[in-house]
Amino acid sequence: MGTKKSGPVGADSGPLVRFGDAMTARTVLDATATAGSFSVVEYVLAPRELAAPLHMHRREDEFTIVIAGRIGFLLGEEVVHAGPGELVREPKNQWHTFWNAGEVQARVLKIISPAGFERYFEEIGSPSPDGPPDLEGMARANRKYGLQMDFESLPQLIERFGLRRPAETDRTVRE
To answer: CATH number, domain at 142?
Structure first.
């Protein structure tokens, strides 16, 4: 895992979780590397890919630094876009989502504070290419990590912003 405490962190450090054909989440720094202060997760998104349905963290603030491409964000009712080198804050207790707003692959680093949520991605795991996601497992993980997801937002987000659907299903996960 991303437990290195100093110096550069390589492109292959940390566990990688793949969602569908394109999006990945890789833990770069985990709670053990930062004494629980924060974690860093790298996302790679295909062109026009929606990362997730509207969701809200009860415990964590997220700070997204765009490394490559152009990322769109819906923060409550506000729509913002950011490019390479720009940072966007996604505060806890606010409905939000993000997507690749461009026509080329995008990369972002998410700083998540406090640390711990980075384990969520490993717990829900990569969806099976042969079947639907484990909705019961995702519901358990959502409860454990204080995450609310609005799967019913998927069709509206996809239509409103001209996006591809994420690997997750639009069926509701019960809290």
So the answer is: 2.60.120.10
Q: Is residue 6 in a domain?
A: no
- pTM value? 0.84
Which pLDDT score is estimated for 169? 32
Q: What is the mean pLDDT of each run of 10 residues along the chain (175 residues)?
A: 50 66 82 93 93 95 98 98 98 97 95 94 68 75 94 94 65 34
In-domain check, residue 2: no
Structural domain count of the chain: 1
SS3 letters for the chain?
CCCCCCCCCCCCCCCEEEECCCEEEEEEECHHHCCCCCEEEEEEECCCEECCCEEEECCCEEEEEEEECCEEEEECCEEEEECCCCEEEECCCCCEEEEECCCCCEEEEEEEECCCCCHHHHHHCCCCCCCCCCHHHHHHHHHHCCEEEEHHHHHHHHHHHCCECCCCCCCCCCC
